[in-house]
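agent: user wants the structure for Lipoprotein from Qipengyuania aurantiaca. delegating to structure tool.
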Amino acid sequence: MNKALLPVALAGTVLLGGCATYGNGGLLGDILGGGDTYGYNGGNDLERRAAEACGREASRFGRAEVTRVDQQDRDYLYVYGRIDTRDYNRDEFTCVYRSDGRIVDFQTR
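agent: tool returned. relaying tokens verbatim.
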């Protein structure tokens, strides 16, 4: 390898290092299918939409992670998760997501 190209190659790897995040975001994570929804990577499309909407609502309080999505009937999904906050009395959340895309109930506990 030409020694003149070595600094360019090193700078390129440092610049692209932020894009290589796998999992919840990052360029390569989205391309490789690692862009899971607030830690929830299972279920059907409706469950993923519910996890995304409720996780986005929970992220107003801190870093959110969806742990479980239960579909009780055809129109309502119950989303459970954790919020990384300093207040241990409000570090979990429950969210009710309706199939038309609305959050009808959100509670921290």
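agent: one observation worth passing along. The helical segments are 6-16, 27-31, 45-58.
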